[in-house]
Write a structure and sequence with these properties.
- This protein is about 20% helix and about 45% strand.
- The protein is of the alpha+beta class and about 180 residues long.
- α1 packs antiparallel against α2.
- The protein is elongated.
Length: about 180
């Protein structure tokens, strides 16, 4: 009996591995100090520290001026995007978003882009050289947040397998008891 219980535990441990998916983060109410806005989103996976699906637009006078689509550098507390990437970043738009108070996680939630301890944590500018090692910053974000929505992870087939194993063990236990 003890062996059967151990085997069931092993099966449960093997087939119930956790799954994670990147969190979709959406910019909401993001405004620069000159009134221009940012809108869009990106995906971030905290387990692998990777960004993907970047599409953040700069909106000037109610029209999209350009869209940041490439990751420049990033982590759980700050990220920088450029317009298109490539081998020469000179004169490309540069966007830095800082969220030092509450780092990005796989749990999602709402994180302010305005840091009272560092008002320049979120700002935009222009790359001054090929590698964007120097940036001329222009505007600072004065309002707004990012909202993270966790992806819905489907229940794996292991749940069905585990349920079947439990049912089979119950049937075997009844047979032995009789």
């Amino acid at each position: 009996m003890w062996i059967k219980a151990c085997l069931t535990g092993v099966l449960f441990a093997v087939f119930s591995t956790a799954q994670s998916a990147p969190i979709h983060w959406t910019l909401t109410g993001v405004v620069f100090d000159d009134g221009d806005e940012l809108a869009g989103s990106f995906a971030y996976d905290a387990d692998s520290n990777t960004f993907s699906d970047v599409a953040i637009s700069l909106i000037q006078d109610s029209e999209v001026s350009f869209t940041y689509t490439a990751l420049f550098a990033g982590g759980s507390t700050a990220v920088a995007f450029v317009e298109a990437g490539g081998s020469d970043l000179t004169d490309q738009g540069y966007l830095q978003l800082g969220f030092y108070q509450f780092p990005l996680t796989n749990a999602g939630g709402a994180i302010s882009l305005v840091d009272p301890m560092d008002p320049a944590a979120s700002q935009d500018g222009v790359c001054l050289d090929i590698t964007c090692s120097s940036v001329s910053f222009g505007r600072t974000v004065v309002a707004g947040a990012i909202i993270g929505t966790p992806a819905i992870v489907p229940v794996p087939g292991a749940a069905w397998l585990f349920g079947s194993a439990v049912g089979l063990m119950g049937a075997m236990r009844r047979k032995i008891s009789s």
